[in-house]
What does this fold into?
Amino acid sequence: MDKLWAPWRVSYVSQIGKKKLGCLFCRLFKEKSDKKNYVFLRSKHSYAVLNIYPYNNGHVLVVPNRHVNELDKLNKEERNDLFDLLIQAKAILKKYLKPQGFNIGINIGRIAGAGFPKHVHVHIVPRWSGDVNFMPVTTKTKVISQSLEALYKILTNENKKRN
It folds into this structure.
C-alpha cells in the first residue's frame, strides 16, 4: 500500500464528531484569529480565507461578513466589496502562485454543492496544466503541493507589502 503523508489532516480527523455550533464563516469573522484560521485579507464587508480542504493548491473562499444565503440578500455596497476582495485575492494568487487559469464559482444551496448553504461564499481555485493527473483517477487521491502554513505565509507577506 502506498502512503501519502498529510500531517495537516490530523486536526480534521481529531475533530470528527466534535462539531462546533453555529456558522463556521460567522465564527471566523468574529474570532479575528486570522493566522490560526488562515484569513489573509479583510475588507469592510468581506474576508478571504484559505480553504482547509482544498480542491487544489491555493483554493480560497471569499466570504461576506454578514450571514446570508443568497447574493441578492447582500446590499449593493456588500456585493461590490465582496467582488472587489475577490479580484484582490485573485491578483495575489496570480502573482505568487502563477497559475495558468482559475475556476471561480458560487454554489447556492446544498443540492448545488454548497458545503455551507446558509452563508454564501465564492470559491477561487487556481489551475495549472497537469494539475489533474493520474492520482485522482487511479488512486482516488488528490495531491496538494503546498502546506496551508507555507501558502498563508506567502499570501500574508504580499498583503503587508500592499498596505
